[in-house]
Amino acid sequence: MRMSDLHFQRLVDEALGLVPEEFRPYLEGVPVVIEDWASDALLDELGVPEDETLYGLYSGRALTEGPPLSGELPPRITLYRGPLLEDGLDEAELRDEIATTVIHEIAHHFGIGEDRLEELGWD
Fold first, then answer.
1. Topology (CATH level 3) of domain 5-119
2. What is the DSSP string of 51-65?
């Protein structure tokens, strides 16, 4: 699917708008950045199989782990535009996948791990 950067950003903004108001203060200072693709080195580091892809990544210390330590980078959410657009989704499906990815990465910020997200249906 082809989509302008601005249109993609609007879909990300819509997804962020789904976050309940009471959680938003905990996300202040956590940038949501859009990159085209995760690097091969990052995919290797994360152990992502070659036949799979990465839509998003939470980096940093979760709130449940306390404040960042000296020298640690602050938390950040990265969305990877290329894989999302290349997966053959129509716009409604893309909107849903972006929302799912954003919520999934925000959950990591709150200390919710992959196993629990899978149990909750957010895998």
1. Zincin-like (3.30.2010)
2. T----EEEES--GGG
Which residue reads 């690097």 in tokens?
A: 39
Measured distance CA(55)–CA(64) in Å, rounded: 24
Among the residues of 1-123, which ranges form H helices? Answer: 5-16, 40-46, 81-86, 91-109, 114-119
Name beta bridge partners: 77.
32, 58
Asked if 55 and 80 touch (Cβ cutoff 8 Å), the reply is yes
For 78-118, what is each residue's pLDDT tens digit?
Answer: 999 999 999 989 999 999 999 999 999 999 999 998 888 88
Is residue 70 within 8 Å of 94, Cβ to Cβ?
no
Count the alpha carbons within 13 Å of 36 in the hemisphere toward its beta carbon. 3
